[in-house]
Structure formats: structure tokens, C-alpha cells
Specification:
Blueprint: H1 6-13, H2 23-29, H3 35-41, H4 49-58, H5 65-68, H6 81-84, E1 113-117, E2 120-126, H7 150-162, E3 168-173, H8 181-192, E4 199-204, H9 206-209, H10 216-224, E5 228-234, H11 243-254, E6 257-264, H12 273-285, E7 289-294, H13 309-322, E8 330-333, E9 342-343
Parallel strand pairs: 2-3, 3-4, 4-5, 5-6, 6-7, 7-8
Antiparallel strand pairs: 1-2, 8-9
The structure holds pyridoxal-5'-phosphate (PLP) and iron/sulfur cluster.
Pyridoxal-5'-phosphate (PLP) binds next to strand 2 and strand 3.
Amino acid sequence: MITRSPAPLQRHDEGEPLTLQPAWQAQLAGAVRDPRELCRRLGLDERWLPGAEAGHELFEVRVPEAFLSRMRPGDPHDPLLRQVLPLDEEVRPTPGYVADPLEEAAHTPAKGLIHKYSGRVLLIASPACAVNCRYCFRRHFPYAENSPSMAQWEATLDTLRDDTTIHEAILSGGDPLAASDRRLAWLVARLEEIPHLTRLRIHTRLPVVIPDRIDDTLLTWLGGTRLQKVMVLHINHPHEIDDAVIAACARLRAAGVTLLNQSVLLRGVNDSVAALATLSERLFEAGVLPYYLHVLDPVAGAAHFDVPDDEARELVAGLRELLPGFLMPRLVREIPGEGSKTPL
Ligand SMILES: *Cc1c(COP(=O)(O)O)cnc(C)c1O
Ligand code: SF4
């Protein structure tokens, strides 16, 4: 007689995917989204909780496991935790800190498209991010209104096709790599058909916070395109770069992707010559060149991250004494209405 007990089945299923969902999507879905859980996981004192919960109401907490695992438990000042833990300072209004500091709402001719730089356009490929960074200049961006459907993409693609001055498509977000590979492969195939487009650039934090995002499916569409490929990562502190990130970068480079990094200069995260110098060295070990070091955009809720311009210049001068020129990021500010970043 055959008895069907569920126990052996469960044992058999353990560790096996129940659906065809890629590993990275499961990690994205499983990210920590509860401020209490974040504090508990890191063994933080209760006094951090009210601030975390208040900030979470404004812009929700989101931290993938792979990023959380690089934080030091018990340290409320951990440079990675500081980027994702809401503090009570967030809810205090600060003069000059506004919802849309870059006035992007004014540069959106088609849904999901931001055209404010000459020769290149930003396409909002995904409204979501894998991690919610407290200092983000888009923390109040109306993504829902700027997240196009497949049909709306057609209008955006028409705009690109009609403007032969555009040579570079920049996939942005949110985080463009939060979109499915099916959607991204479709989009890149459509972009490839536009003859005056030569470059595809992707601004993403996903290879850092969920390195498993760089899987074979992604490498198939990305490696296969005729477009020249540039990926601009977003890493602020050397502790963000672990072996899994280095391996993801190696896979990207093997697929012909040029890797650059942009950082934001953040109080309490990377506001020291030592942290910035180690970051540049670590990036180079991963095959990534430092590109921009942004000063903070004055977005409401992020004033506590600000580093004054004079101090930013001093830090960069200190960095220049230590590093070769090719490891020096460009210190820049984004000024609304300007067609490029402004060097400080
Ligand atoms: C500045 C910026 C760009 C354009 O960058 P360049 O490298 O100066 O062409 C594109 N996307 C984002 C998100 C930016 O901040
Ligand atoms: S990943 Fe980038 S866009 Fe998303 S919250 Fe962080 S800084 Fe903002």
C-alpha cells in the first residue's frame, strides 16, 4: 500500500524553487520593509524605533538581505545602515529642502521620459527600487504618474526615433534593473532599432544590493545588444563591496559593460578622506572607475546628510593627495535647468 504523507514531499521540496521566479526576485520580495524588523535584526536600542517608524510613514523602509548582511550588528552608526534607517530628523522641515529639488516635473515631454541633457535621455524603466535610500532626491517623485504601460512606451520610443540628436538612452528609475528581464529585453530590442542610438547606459544600485540580479538571463540581453554598454553603479562606502559584488562586476565586464560609479557625499556615511580613498581603491579592485561624487540634492527629509561645499572641497583636496587621477571622482552638483552637472 502506498501512503502519501506530506512530510517526505516537504523535505524533497526544500531549497527548490516552487515557481520559475528568479532568485533575485525572491530576494527583492523578501527585503526587510518594517522599521521594527530592521532595528531588531541589527540589535538596535529601542530609542531608534520612533524615528524609524516616523520616517517610514514618509518613505517606506526597504533593505534587501544581501545588503543588510554587510552591516555591523549593534552599531547604529554603521555607514550602510545610516543610508537606509529613517531618523526623526526626516520629519523636521528644513528651509530650502523641497520635494522635487531638481524640478524634474518640468522636463517630462512623454510619459517615462526625462529629457534634460543634450544628446541623451533618461527613461524611467521601473518605478521601484530594491533599496530605499533615505537621502534619495527622488523620494517624493510621483512614480505612479511616470510609470508607462507598454502602449505608452510606444509614444516614448516615437519621441526618441524622431530626435536624431539623441545618441544615448539612459535607463533610470527608481532602479531600472528592478524591472523583469522580459520587459528590459523588449525595451532594449526596441531601442536597438533606432539607428541614431549608439549607447545604452544603465543607472542602477541592484548589482550592489542584490548581486544575484546579474544572472544569466540578464547577461543574455545585455551582452547581446549592438549598443555600447555603460553601467553606472551607486556605491557610497567601501563596506558595500563584498565578494558577491565583485563577482557580479566581473560578469558584467565579461559581457562588455564599462563600469562606473557614482556616490553621494553623505554626513555620517562617507564624509572622511579615509572612507572615500578606500572606496576608490575598492571600486578599482572590482573593475569599476569612480565617476561622480555628488553633493546632496536638497530634498525634504535629507538635510541631516548635508556636507557643506567648503568641507566637500577639502575632502576632495585630501583625496587628491592620496589617489592617482583615474581614481578621483568628479565633485559635482545638479542644478535645476542646467544641461550638465556643475563641478564644485
Ligand atoms: C547626471 C545624471 C545623468 C547624466 O549624467 P552624465 O554622466 O553627466 O551624462 C543621468 N542620470 C542621472 C540619474 C544623473 O544623475
Ligand atoms: S537606489 Fe537610487 S533611486 Fe532608488 S532610492 Fe536609492 S538613490 Fe534613490
